[in-house]
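Q: Structure tokens for this one, please.
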Amino acid sequence: MHKHIDWDDPGADSVMHYFAQDPTGHSEPRTGDILSARHEGAIVRVRVEAWVDGTSIGEVAVIISTDNGRRLKSHGKLALGDTVRLPDASRALEPRHGTDDDEDPDEEGT
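A: Here is the predicted structure, written as tokens:
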């Protein structure tokens, strides 16, 4: 049995929106794929076990705090190992952490 999760709206980080503008489109998730979404502000990675009518069913493999990038064992009512349903519309691109492409590390402190 899966746990019902109210996923955060991915907004500008929507995977579906991103691929809608890609001429190759996107493919359906397959068994073993890792998908990302957001739940109560945390990043959640789900390992796909099945995909049915635009919804992936899988196990929560990783939960990451967006405050500090630490991995969590649980967040709210969600825990590692939970089986969840993740609609394609809730999938989100992951934010970049710890990099700033505009900074040159050689110029630090000058």
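A few notes: Residues 99-110 have pLDDT under 50 and may be disordered. The helical segments are 15-20.
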